[in-house]
Structure formats: structure tokens, C-alpha cells
């Protein structure tokens, strides 16, 4: 494998993340990384037997999982941050997305205001679903299995109930803390996703059907794309609608919290930019909807370019977030 792009890096630090084959274009994609110094994605042409190299932004130094979607675009996870991203194979533009921020439950905390520095979710392996083309990945440190629908730009995250105190920065007084180490997963038939919990010697599964009707709520956002100047505030409407599912907490009222993250920092935090919801938490009856406002103000020192806000809601079992593109002008 060519490693000329890693000049100055100890060769013992360079490793291959994973591999994905685009059968339509006779292309093999490979992720290479030297965690912290840098990461690259290599494209190997099977016909011409030649390599092309795509150097990643400095903050994406740990590309691991790779998958090719239904439009031949490449998706990758960065196992050093809370970021996953798409490489458009038509123009080779890169679009980043963020998971939700790490849950305070991982650290035995009640809220996210005091999360330890470097609280990354660490997206790891990624796989395309054969049923609808969604991208599935595990959040190693985030203790979740995630599904991202590239058509609707919606992220669904399923919390893994298992937590192991040996794998977490746990205060002595905490009753629950740590992660299950969800490392390997595989997509099965009938909408099933199977996964292993390395810390706990367990395996589990998530089952969904094509219309998502077992999810307790859905999320939409408007507008879905913004162009802003630094310091300019904007209002984004976020709608949370409950469904008719019969599983808990229905038919009781659904308690949800609003959540936001973004690609402004490696952890999904907004950095020096600010954003707040008009309501932080509320209850919804079955088959009801509620609209809340998210007021976002990009920081004065924020660099120009394209970012992604992730806005939505969560309960104890699932997080649903919509992606909103944000263009920051010079």
C-alpha cells in the first residue's frame, strides 16, 4: 500500500482501517490511519491497477469503517471523534455529520454540562443496509447502534442498556456507568441488526420494519439548509411527532428531551457558537405533535465553509436527529 502521504510518521503507527468494494465502478476503497497525526482514504482502480489518495482534514485522523451507498458515494466513520462523513464520488466533496453528544450516563452523570474533556462517541464500523440503503454503524464509546438515512438525512441512535463500570470514568457514587463495548455487528434478514457486547459477554439485536412504525416519535426540521454570516442568529423550527406504537411508553405520555450537536468540534459540541431550544424537555400524548424553536448563532471566530447541525429529540431508548446544512460566509 502506498504510504508516501505519511512522510515523517513512524511506519509502526500506520495501519489499514477497513475496505469497501464498489462493484459498479470496479473500485476498491481503503482507509489508512496513523491516529492523531493523519488519515487518508485510498481508491484502487481494479482495471488500471492504480491508486489515488484523498487526504482528510486534520480533525479526521482516524478513518476506520467504510461503506458504499446506493449512489456509489463512500461513507466513513472516524474512530477518534464523534464524526461520520460522506465522500461524494462525483465531485469528491466531503460532507461531515455528527452523532449526538456522548450520554452523561456513560460517566455516571445526570446531565451533559459536566462531560469530561474528549467525550467522543467514536463511530467505528459501518455497513449499508440491503433493505433501504441506510448506513448502520456502532458508536463504540457512545454505547449505541446508529442508522443514518442518506435520503432524508435522519440519524437514528439506539441506546444499548448494558453498561460495564470497568469501561468508564465512573465516580464512586454512581449506580450506573460505563459502556458495553459494542464492537461487532451485522445486518440480518427481516430488518434485524445483530451486535456483540465485548465487555459483558452478550449479544443482542435491533429489529425494525421499513416504515419505522415501532419508533415512539419522529422528527422534522425547517429550514434544512442555511447560509449565515458570523454572529448572525437564525431560528430553526423542529417538529416532534408521536406515533401509534403500542410499546412503552405508549399509550402513556411520551417524555422527550431536545438534543443538538454539530460538526463544529470533534465531540459534536457547538464550540464557541451558541444554540438553544425554546424548550428542553416536555411530554407528548400519543398521536400529537409539538414544534420547538432552535436559535443558532455562529461564533465570530468560526471559519467559513460548510458545517452540519444535528437537531432532534431523545428518550431513554432512542435518539432521532435531522441534519441541517449550515454555510458560513467569509
Number of strands: 24
- Please tell me what the overall shape is: globular
What top-tier CATH class of the largest domain fits best?
Answer: Mainly Beta
> By CATH's scheme, which homologous superfamily of the largest domain applies?
Immunoglobulins
How many distinct domains?
3
Order of helices and strands: EEEEEEEEEEEEEEEEEEEEEEEE
CATH topology heading of the largest domain: Immunoglobulin-like
Continuous helix count: 0
Distance between the termini: 39 Å
Average pLDDT figure = 92
* CATH-level-2 architecture of the largest domain: Sandwich
Q: How many strands, which pairing sense, and closed or not: the largest β-sheet? A: 9 strands, mixed
Percent of residues in β-strands? over 45%
Helix content: under 10%
Q: What structural category arises from helix and sheet content?
A: mainly beta
Low-confidence stretches: none
Q: Give the C-alpha Rg.
A: 20 Å
Present the secondary structure layout.
Blueprint: E1 15-22, E2 27-34, E3 38-45, E4 50-55, E5 63-68, E6 74-78, E7 83-87, E8 94-98, E9 123-128, E10 135-139, E11 144-149, E12 154-159, E13 182-187, E14 192-197, E15 202-207, E16 217-222, E17 225-228, E18 234-242, E19 254-262, E20 274-277, E21 281-284, E22 289-297, E23 305-314, E24 318-328
Parallel strand pairs: 17-24
Antiparallel strand pairs: 1-2, 2-3, 3-4, 5-6, 6-7, 7-8, 9-10, 10-11, 11-12, 12-24, 13-14, 14-15, 16-18, 18-22, 19-21, 19-23, 20-22, 23-24
Amino acid at each position: 500500500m502506498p504510504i508516501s502521504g505519511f512522510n515523517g510518521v513512524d511506519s509502526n503507527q500506520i495501519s489499514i482501517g477497513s475496505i469497501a468494494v464498489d462493484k459498479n465502478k470496479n473500485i476498491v476503497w481503503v482507509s489508512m490511519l496513523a491516529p492523531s497525526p493523519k488519515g487518508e482514504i485510498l481508491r484502487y482502480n481494479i482495471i488500471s491497477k492504480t491508486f489515488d489518495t484523498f487526504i482528510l482534514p486534520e480533525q479526521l485522523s482516524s478513518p476506520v469503517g467504510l461503506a458504499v451507498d446506493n449512489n456509489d458515494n463512500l461513507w466513513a466513520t472516524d474512530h477518534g471523534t464523534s464524526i461520520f462523513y460522506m465522500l461524494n464520488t462525483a465531485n469528491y466533496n466531503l460532507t461531515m455529520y455528527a452523532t449526538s453528544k456522548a450520554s452523561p450516563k456513560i460517566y455516571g452523570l445526570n446531565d451533559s454540562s459536566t462531560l469530561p474533556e474528549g467525550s467522543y462517541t467514536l463511530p467505528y464500523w459501518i455497513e449499508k443496509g440491503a433493505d433501504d440503503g441506510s448506513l448502520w454503524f456502532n458508536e463504540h464509546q457512545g454505547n449505541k447502534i446508529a442508522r443514518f438515512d442518506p435520503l432524508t438525512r435522519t440519524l437514528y441512535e439506539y441506546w444499548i442498556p448494558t453498561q460495564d463500570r470497568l469501561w468508564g470514568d465512573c465516580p464512586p457514587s454512581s449506580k450506573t456507568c460505563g459502556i458495553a463495548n459494542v464492537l461487532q455487528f451485522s445486518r440480518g434478514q427481516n430488518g434485524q441488526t445483530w451486535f456483540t457486547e465485548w465487555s459483558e459477554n452478550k449479544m443482542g439485536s435491533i429489529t425494525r420494519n421499513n416504515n419505522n412504525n415501532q419508533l415512539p416519535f419522529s422528527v422534522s426540521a425547517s429550514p434544512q439548509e442555511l447560509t449565515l454570516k458570523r454572529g448572525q442568529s437564525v431560528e430553526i423550527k423542529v417538529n416532534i411527532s408521536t406515533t401509534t406504537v403500542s410499546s412503552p411508553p405508549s399509550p402513556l405520555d411520551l417524555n422527550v428531551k431536545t438534543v443538538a450537536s454539530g460538526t463544529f468540534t470533534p465531540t459534536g459540541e457547538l464550540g464557541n457558537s451558541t444554540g438553544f431550544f425554546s424548550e428542553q424537555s416536555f411530554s407528548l400524548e400519543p398521536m400529537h405533535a409539538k414544534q420547538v424553536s432552535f436559535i443558532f448563532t455562529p461564533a465570530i471566530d468560526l471559519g467559513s465553509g460548510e458545517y452540519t447541525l444535528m437537531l432532534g429529540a431523545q428518550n431513554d431508548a432512542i435518539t432521532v436527529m435531522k441534519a441541517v446544512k449550515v454555510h458560513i460566509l467569509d
